[in-house]
Specification:
The complex is a heterodimer of chains A (555) and B (188).
Chain A lengths: L4 E8 L3 H12 L4 E4 L19 H4 L1 E7 L1 E6 L5 H4 L29 H14 L12 H12 L5 E2 L31 H7 L3 E3 L2 E8 L5 E8 L7 E14 L6 H12 L15 E8 L1 H8 L20 E3 L14 E5 L23 H7 L5 E7 L7 E2 L8 E3 L5 E7 L4 H18 L5 E5 L7 E3 L29 E3 L14 H21 L24 E2 L5 E2 L3
Parallel strand pairs in A: 1-2, 1-9, 2-6, 3-16, 4-18, 9-19
Antiparallel strand pairs in A: 3-4, 5-11, 7-8, 8-9, 10-13, 10-17, 11-12, 12-13, 14-16, 15-16, 20-21
Helix pairs in contact in A: 1-6, 1-11, 4-11
Chain B lengths: L1 E3 L2 E2 H14 L26 H6 L9 H19 L9 H4 L2 H11 L7 H17 L5 H6 L3 H6 L36
Antiparallel strand pairs in B: 1-2
Helix pairs in contact in B: 1-3, 1-5, 1-6
Classes of the chains: A alpha/beta (555), B mainly alpha (188).
Amino acid sequence: MTAHDRTDVLVIGSGFGGAIPAYHLAAGGASVVVLERGPWLTADEFDHDFKFGSSSTRVFEFTMGEGMNVLGGNCVGGGSVVYFAAMPRAPQFVFEREGSLGHRMWPKSITRESLEPWYDRVAQALPITQSTWDDVTYAGGVFAAACDHAGRTANPVAAAIDTDLCTNCNWMMSGCKFDAKRSLLLNYLPAALDHGAQIRPLHEVQRIERSPEGDFLVHYTVVDPVDYRVQVDAGVIEAKIVVVAAGAAATPVILQRSEENLGAMPPAVGRYFSGNGERLNTAILNEDRVRDVLGLDRGDGLAYAANQIGRGPSAASWDRLDGALPEFSRYSLEQLYFPPGFGTILAQAPDAEGPSWFGVDKKEILRRWQSWLTIFIMSEDDNEGVFGPPPETGNAERISMQMLSRGSLRYEPSANTRHGWALADADIRDILERDGLARVMPWTNEVIGAYTVHPLASCRMGDDPETSALDDTNELRDHPGIFVTDGSAVPGALTVNPAFTIAAIAERAVPNIVRAAQARGVDVRYLGSLPATARVSRKAPVTVTGPDGQPVTVP
Amino acid sequence: MDTNDGLTADQVMTLEAYADTIIPGEKRDPTDRAVAGEVSGGGAVASGAVELMLTPEGGLAGTLDSLAEGLNEHARHYTARIGLDPDPTVPPFVALAFADRVALAQELLAPGHPEQELWVALAMFSAMAWDTGAHMSTSDALASGHPGLTSMGFMPPESDGVWRFPRFSYGRALAAIHPRTTPRGDPQ
């Protein structure tokens, strides 16, 4: 057997699910290696640019499936680098959901109340800031005013953003140039490094094996920094504990591929995927009606015309987050921004005589793009997603050098899911078409199927071994020593942005991982500390050494 | 005849005609056959659709010749089915009138078409050329009057090439907050 690296804890992925355990385990004395398949970029490398090859394609991943497309981060810091940093806690009723199971989806030990202390820790560590109306952008404001006009309520949305540094450039999906977004590059990850953890970018884990001694051998390939289709190296790291946090579109694929050596996976691995019930509507606002009906004026002669200005979502309607309503009819409506491309292609022209998502009518609505208002539905889907057999490497077959790939996820929305979407679509029309404020159309699902920026539940927690892959400690059933701590552990749709809940569950999992490590002879303690926060994201500090002892070039 | 990275002039015209079906534009000159000239202003072609399709980063470049041939094959079948008399001097897809190009594209892009994924990919590159100009830097695209970004009213960056919007908020309460909002500002 060739020589290979050893570590106490090997963490796969550096988003919320990976960074949080990496920090605590390193702080507690364990040796920790984090393998991240994406590149390591910092503030000065985040571009304001749509050009292929800029940070917008380097750090972002668009994985097409059959009926479901997943958008997510692909870089050190994972989703925290590319997301919009909206951080509401999930409502109480979410934890009581049954979905179509006929019994509770979540472990009995996890409720909103029991999760509060873990939420509090994350809120302090990032930190998350409660928003006021002064923080609400024009787009959030016009949505809030329309909600009010329709007799609804609307709330400023808490965010992990330092608004003193934010320029409202709306480029945050390409990474934040100003370090205003409080991504993991500013807290858990640098703190993990300070405690000796290593983060190795462009290292894509392919499979996990058991060593003859009962430890784990984690096999990875090293990805070319420009053309992610090209593998430039490969290697193995031995670990006593493995934390899988590759994201809900990749974690189950790694486990599926590991089945040949590790033995059968629990039946819920690669099943019950949820897209968080997500769906988008585009409203094309009538500027005159915005001024006359809502009384809005920017002070520069314009009523709105501010689609481009802001920082993702800043206001949401929570009127349907009501536990008294039946399941599959509860959702939040959140004002959102997507840049041109992602944010325009699937939008449909109202009253189109020909095609609605391309052609003459589409071009006409694009001319009014600054008057667009995007409304994001987060509802209760039915955990319909199922992963097919894993591809040869990675979680999907790469099509483009960066960003675009095709995976094995299949998703056919059930009547329950479609019911929630229909209610939400009608609600948005009721709010925004009232008194001629706007024309509204949902994005088409006929071109690529459904889509989500919040993949969940593909390797979920629960109390029932048939319908959950993890127990309530986040340990993979029948495979002690493997923990899953990313969005795939969340049992189902949350009706709000899930990053805060994913992070809270990762915090909650850490004492369990520490106990498992101790049982395997690792000298580690759970300190319960929180990371020091940084103002500036840090350059990649490690020189990566390949299995043959040669350094591997990283950006 | 090679013109663009191994593509023939006919193949380029065919891809342009498809891009023009997705985001239509005005003819580049009176002899322009690929662009149907259905609407005013530059469309996907003038915004760089073929350049974007040809970028090595996109992953589509190696398949463009067969996509162009495929479009023409579908156009031949469409022409025969509808009973049209196409101009033989241009590729069959280019020979279609704009309305027929749209009708054929709708067939190819419809759920259930066996090649839907291919034609959706080509349509997305066409749309992205107009919406984002992703074959070139966004600052340069705006400075050079990129048709799509300009038509959309995409605001330019500050002089250092970075976007900042100091004015961003109406700055006042615009709705009652939900009655069950917690003191921290979360849903209950």
